[in-house]
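User: I'm writing a short methods note and want a consistent example. For histidine kinase, I'll paste the sequence; you return only the structure tokens, no commentary, since I'll be parsing the reply automatically.
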Amino acid sequence: MTTEPLTYNVLLIDDQQMAEDLIGQMLADKTDLRLHFLLDSSKALATAIVLQPSVVLVDLRMPGLDGFGVTAALRADPATRDIPVVLLSSEDSPDVKVRAFAEGANDYLVKWPDKRELVARVLYHASANLARKQRDDAFLSLRRSQQELLKRTEELAQSQAALHQAQKMEAIGQLTGGVAHDFNNVLQVISGNLELLRLMTRGNEAAQSRIAAAAVGVDRGAKLAAHLLAFARRQPLQSVVIDPARLLRDMSDLLRRALGDMTRVETVLDEGLWTICVDPSQLENVILNLALNARDAMDSEGRLTIRACNVGSGIPGSERPPRGNGDHVLISVSDTGTGMPADVLERAFEPFFTTKPAGQGTGLGLSMAYGFVKQSDGHIALESEPGRGTTVKIFLPRCDGAAAAPPPEPTAAVTGGAETILVVEDEHDVRATTVALLNNLGYRTCQAADATAALRLLQDGTRVDLVFTDVMMPGPLSSVEFVEQARRMLPGLQVLFTSGYSEGVIAHGGRIDPGLNLLPKPYTAEALSQKIRQLLARR
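Assistant:
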């Protein structure tokens, strides 16, 4: 690799044309020195700014702007202040030389110097100027590198903090997901036995009242478990394409009743909202929980504003999600409450974290919203300052499909029929309670503790109309594998899954696999009987 030879530009300023010829002859055999001549000293500054010479040779005595004036002008301008200036004069006076250096000259030569001295001094000042430029460029490059390093270090620290937070949230999620799963099984045993007691004590108003009160406790526990699973992103979502505008409009009356007369509710919906693919019941729960949090922050008196709009790169001036690109529907819930300081804002999504007094909150509202939004491939952001209220922003990905029709209103409880149902459940107490419930509804039942035992029953010739199986099964045969073999043996067999946690078996990425039917635990006798009748009606 060859390097281009350096060429130094030398600007000579003199009112005598002969100076160009004389200096030109002295520098003629130096290929690295290129001479530029300027006759009019008034143009010295403008020429130097454009040419950026390595050295300026300027005559001292000239009409108009003399050598002192040229030197002063060059030193006063930032673009030329560092260019070496050599004054040429016929005067060998110490006073003149002192003034020359005072004006900023780098050197002083008495006309006419020896050729070798002139060349040596020009090369010295030119190379010194080049070295200065290289030094300045190096310092500038170093400063930029330091700034870039500082920026990268800050970004790395932020990324590490985000990773640490994500790992902490994931660890908490795994713990809460496991606890919620076991809790749902316990609730199912309690709920099932309450249902049996209710059926056995018909006509006993005192007993029925006690059972109803206990059922309310079970329902609260079920909601708590659902919130835990939602935060842990383990809650199976039955996602469908919905119109968010219709869902939010339908919630208006519910919100006004839940929040009370002292809280003003405003719903602002942009025209032409895109459809989104989410679990509508879970989205309603999120909006309701955010609204209740807002009510508490406003001490039941203030303004709650729910807005929805389309955001994306194709919409000028629209807001963007905190991460990712693409089209989204933004749903924001804003209040005029007390707001949150930075330290509270940082922990707001953690489960069980709450600033409310003991007994006035579970600390799961925002964490449930966080889990649901992440499980729905969306983004969630919090904006809050003390005294300025809080805004929760939910970005849900746009879906191109048409909105599904709203589900029909649930009908009254169905008592069942004479069909045979195979119950597959590894938890003995849950299985026994479920079998007793189905028998009380009039069904014939058989049962198995795992998928292998259930398959053996069918291989032995047991005829069943519907399989009601837990999703999570011990043993070598999974519930899904058992169902596949059972359907080959009994074409038209209906299957209803149940679980408090089904991720990785019939739900992937938090979404139920298409074509599968799931009844989440804990379930009531009415919900169980309705679902069974719906499936058996398909045969």
